[in-house]
Amino acid sequence: MFIGYRSDIRRNTPHRFTLMFLSALLGEYFHSVLFQVIREEHNLAYAIGTQLNMDKGAIHVYAKISKDNIELVEKLVMEEIEKIQDGIIDDKVIELTKNAKVNEILKNGDSPFNPLYDLQDELMGFGKISDEMIIEKYNDITKEDLQEAANMLVLDTIYVLKGKA
């Protein structure tokens, strides 16, 4: 299952880091909302997560599920996004996501590819953004910021591959 949300948020907009954080909070880690609700709590998915396309301002939710669970998983994904749009966000999940994002930045800082990512942003006209600045941006994100970014999401696509399985 693929559920696509789009927004007007791009690399050069004020909500850039909030959208990146929102995607992580929804589905990039084991503690993320969709993983916990759909996989752990309801045992409906073999895998579930999100992918972010910053160039298009899109968050893609993907789930590997049984065809018998399509409607329920779709409903639960939408409910969880609506909760965030209403400002109902667990403080512990926010804190875990902040820690995970910061650790990711610190780990990537040691990567030989890190200068290439910096160069890509510079060439695209976004300027050089230091790791310290990114960490500060993530640490400053509030529930209200997440709620605002979530309210900019528009459901665009629901796509399901239904095989014989």
Strand content: 15-25%
- DSSP strand tally: 4
Overall body shape: globular
Helix and strand composition category: alpha+beta
Helix content: 40-55%
* First and last CA, distance: 14 Å
Q: Low-confidence spans: pLDDT under 50, at least 5 residues?
A: none
Mean pLDDT: 90
Number of separate helices: 7
> What value does the Rg take, in angstroms?
16 Å
What is the element string, with H for helices and E for strands?
EHHEEHHHHHE
Give the spatial strand order of the biggest sheet: 2-3-1-4
Major β-sheet, in short? 4 strands, antiparallel
Describe the secondary structure blueprint for this structure.
Blueprint: E1 2-6, H1 16-27, H2 33-41, E2 45-53, E3 58-65, H3 70-85, H4 91-109, H5 114-123, H6 131-139, H7 143-150, E4 154-159
Antiparallel strand pairs: 1-3, 1-4, 2-3
Explain what this protein looks like in three dimensions.
The protein has 165 residues and is an alpha+beta fold. Helix content is 50%, strand content 17%. The protein has 7 helices and 4 strands. It has a 4-stranded antiparallel β-sheet, covered by helices on one side. Strand 2 and strand 3 form a beta hairpin. Helix 1 crosses helix 7, helix 2 packs antiparallel against helix 3 and helix 3 packs across helix 7. The protein starts with a strand and ends in a 6-residue tail after the last strand. The model has no long low-confidence stretch (mean pLDDT 90).
